[in-house]
Amino acid sequence: MRFLIPLIAVAVVVSIATAQTPTPTSNNAVPPGNAANGKKIYAAYGCYQCHGYEGQGGAGSRLAPGPPPFAYVASYVRRPTRGMPPYTQKVMTDQEIADIYAFLLTIPKPPAVESIPELRN
After folding, report:
1. DSSP classification of residue 88
2. Where are the domains of the chain?
3. Residue 79 and residue 77: Cα distance in Å, rounded?
4. Separation CA 74–CA 57 (nearest Å)
5. What residues have CB less than 8 Å from 64, skipping those under 6 apart?
6. Cα distance between residue 25 and residue 29, in whole Å
7. Measured between alpha carbons, how far is 33 from 106 in angstroms, rounded to an integer?
8. Spatial separation of the C-alpha atoms in residues 64 and 37, rounded to whole Å
9. Residue 89 C-beta-side C-alpha neighbours within 13 Å
10. Cβ-contact 55, 64 below 8 angstroms
């Protein structure tokens, strides 16, 4: 019983803390972003070191083409669960995240394997 009370207290604190954590957007809408600025920010913050120059992945997850939903990306940037450092509001603004996301949306899908003559049998 004496272990149950601290466990409940921790659960209450965690639920209150997560409930009050603001999210960059409250709906699924993608805020307007500047893709050219996002490309510069992506390079300046070193995102390419783990995610590749075109978001293709590497040590970090693949981000493009077809990035995950903006709300997920913005939330993960603020509170990552793996080896990525958190980018708090003091480090990266919501607008900068929107700009990076706009850049990721501009990355085209690669050509189909069948369309590359060198890869045909």
Report:
1. -
2. 34-109
3. 6
4. 17
5. 54, 55, 56, 104, 105, 107
6. 7
7. 11
8. 17
9. 5
10. yes
Cβ atoms < 10 Å from Cβ of 43: 13
- Residues 6 or more apart whose CB falls under 8 angstroms from that of 42 comprise 48, 100, 103
State the pTM of this model: 0.72
Scanning the structure block, which residue is given the tokens 């080896």?
A: 83
Rounded to an integer, what distance in angstroms lies between the CA atom of residue 87 and that of residue 104? 18
pLDDT > 90: percent of the chain: 63
The type of residue at 9 is A
Res 24: pLDDT: 43
Residue keyed to tokens 């045909």? 120
pLDDT, residue 120, reads: 78
Report the alpha-carbon distance of residue 86 to residue 83 in Å, rounded. Answer: 9
Given the candidates 1.10.760.10, 3.30.460.10, 1.10.1040.10, 3.60.21.10, the CATH classification of the domain at 34-109 is 1.10.760.10
